[in-house]
From TrEMBL:
The lineage of its organism: Bacteria, Bacillati, Actinomycetota, Actinomycetes, Micrococcales. The modification 4-aspartylphosphate is found at residue 50. InterPro entries: CheY-like_superfamily (IPR011006), OmpR/PhoB-type_DNA-bd (IPR001867), Sig_transdc_resp-reg_receiver (IPR001789), WalR-like (IPR039420), WH-like_DNA-bd_sf (IPR036388). Coiled coil: none annotated. One of its GO terms (molecular function) is transcription cis-regulatory region binding. GO terms for cellular component: cytosol; protein-DNA complex. This is Sensory transduction protein RegX3. The keyword Nucleotidyltransferase does not apply. GO terms for biological process: regulation of DNA-templated transcription. Pfam families: Response_reg, Trans_reg_C. Residues 127-222 bind DNA. Residues 2-114 form the Response regulatory domain. Keywords: DNA-binding, Phosphoprotein, Transcription, Transcription regulation.
Length: 223
């Protein structure tokens, strides 16, 4: 598995690379945002991204990588405040660790996000399906079953569930859901999103399946 390390401190990058190689990973290190964007390729399976880069802010790097790739991104930074975490998730990150961190925790998080990426469902319309805690989603036929019973979702409700199902166990920011379902960045759809999520929970008769992460977005539990 190839891990892209984006870190401007060479000593930190070298130490992290050594630990990851010992754990069986292949690593590639870059020290700035421009190089990071160029380095993401089909063989990149995860990105460990520092926010304090010399040329481009790490959040912008995260957004630009996410704009061209679904590769799992873990932000690793000294910015420990909640606002930074929220901004990171909104920018498209899948997880967040605060420096100084235990490398064993980082490796566990890498394993978690890459495992989710491997089992995650493709976009609606592709031939695949997913089952999470008794809820079965057939993307090709836009069919949802709950404990074997067919559930009638509206097109928007299905699209929202499908977006969340691509990242099971990972927080999906509200703006990403709105962008993918409504095709706009206008936050005025936030209230409509809340109403649709409430309807999905009610129809599936499983309120705990979709967790609200206050101030950030939603997470499909299980998986």
């Amino acid at each position: 598995m190839k891990i892209l390390i984006v870190e401007d401190d060479a000593r930190v990058a070298e130490a992290l690379s050594a630990y990851l190689r010992q754990a069986g990973y292949t690593t590639h290190w870059v020290g700035d945002g421009t190089s990071a964007i160029d380095a993401v390729g089909a063989d990149t399976e995860a990105v460990v991204l520092d926010l304090g880069l010399p040329d481009i802010d790490g959040l912008d790097v995260c957004r630009r990588i996410r704009g061209v790739s679904n590769v799992p991104i873990i932000i690793a930074t000294a910015r420990s405040n909640v606002e930074s975490r929220i901004k990171g998730l909104h920018a498209g990150a899948d997880d967040f660790v605060v420096k100084p961190y235990d490398v064993r925790e980082l490796i566990a998080r890498i394993e978690a996000v890459t495992r989710r990426a491997r089992t995650t469902a493709p976009a609606p319309g592709e031939s695949s399906n997913l089952e999470i805690d008794g809820t079965y989603i057939d993307f090709a036929n836009r069919l949802v079953l709950s404990d074997g019973v067919s559930i009638e979702l509206t097109p928007k409700e299905f699209d929202i569930l499908a977006v969340l199902a691509r990242y099971p166990g990972v927080v999906t920011p509200r703006d990403r859901i709105i962008r993918e379902v409504w095709g706009t960045d206008w936050t005025g759809f936030s209230r409509s999103l809340e109403v649709h999520v409430a309807s999905i929970r009610r129809k599936l008769n499983c309120p705990a399946l979709i967790a609200t992460v206050r101030g950030v977005g939603y997470r499909l539990m299980g998986g």
